[in-house]
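Progress against Task 2.4 (sequence-to-structure conversion) is shown through the following example record, which the project officer requested during the mid-term review.
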Amino acid sequence: MNYHKVKFLTSFGNAGQLPPSEKPEIVFAGRSNVGKSSLINSLFNQKSLARVSATPGKTATINFFETEHLIFADLPGYGYAKVSRGEKRRWADLIEGYFAQDRDIVLVLSLVDSRHPPSADDRMMVEFLIENELPFVVILTKTDKLSARQRQERLEAVRRELPCGDRLTLLPFSSQTGEGREELRELLDRLEADLLLESCGEEGE
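Structure tokens generated for the chain above:
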């Protein structure tokens, strides 16, 4: 995948506005202020592809980015307390509405802050992905904020704290140091290659 050839496509604040999937989709999900925008910018080596806000809960839309063969969907951050009940409900409806549609979701990147135990919303997201048999990887963000000892302790703890944690793929990541970026790119490259092979096979039938 050429990570320099990505562009912002569009954004929607209502699930009813979402267009059908035109390409396989990779989804970024996580609570507010978990570092999704920073991860996206780091992954694609761009400073402002995704807007990084100092105010948690700022992103209230699903933002779509496009590469040659894939669509990346950045979901609104969940779990931010300082917004109205009506706004929380709209965010929930938007996220639930996205997953409820017949979309070509090939991978969900479920972001969890490595510094803290997963929130109830984090656990609920992982349970949802498992129950719906959606392929996913847990990205542990902000690892640069931890000492080596704290980091090892949190890696061990999160396997107890998340549903089926001992069987999950965990990827430590830091947008500040670049840790995990190449591993994530390798994972996405393999996925893209598999999808292209599968597509070629279908065309040859």
